[in-house]
Amino acid sequence: MPLTPTDEIVRRARAAGTGVGAFNVLQLEHAQAIVAGAETADRPVVLQISENTVRYHGALEPVALASLAVARAAKTPVAVHLDHAENPDLVREAVALGLGSVMFDASKLPYAENVAATREVVEHCHRHGVWVEAELGEVGGKGGAHTPGVRTDPAEARAFVEATGVDALAVAVGSSHQMLTRDAVLDFDLIARLRAAVDTPLVLHGSSGVPDADLTTAVAAGMTKVNVSTHLNKAFTRAVRDHLTEHPATVDPRHYLTPARAAVAHEVAHLLTVLAPH
Q: Which residues are catalytic?
């Protein structure tokens, strides 16, 4: 199946009132597991590569090309997305490599600088047919949109989308990145007000900390793209740890990466049905 653009996957989900799972790729096994889970659930999916993962690998190209290859071989629609890029040069590289969408994160900048930087990225990406997600944090703040206590204001969200031309907006509604427990408390009323205020899809970051039932409610309230990373990493690491505990003499990484890949695929399939039940 040819690579599916992120905007097509997100547009169809929004029209259907369902959510799209966007899961972070740390290495090849993650990409394979995410696609396997999507095929099991028979749902579309987004593979995301963060700027942190690029730093881990030392370059974008190897992990991006591997993810693109896995996506093109999938039996269900799969898009490849650059996540949380703060460096415009990395965005331009992602565009040149063929990624269909990017998330440019200037939310730590004061509002006016965020708008200016994001608008420049949007103009470049749109010239190349690439979809852009951005994040709106505290006006004038440095902590970003997911600092505890920070919420996205609907009026500011509307102004930001109009000023930048972004295709999707990550908003702060109570979730937080890298949560190890699933007890985040989302503001569903705020989600609904944001959905009414802007005509672009809303993105929920930090979704690993949100219980299943609340993810379903968040989608019903107006969220479309739902990002998950830490929850999958917990499943991956738990499977590795369990295998090595049971087989302490193991030295071949394939022996413990195989159950880790299967564990991630299982979680992906489950979460995709939570976000988009038949």
A: 83
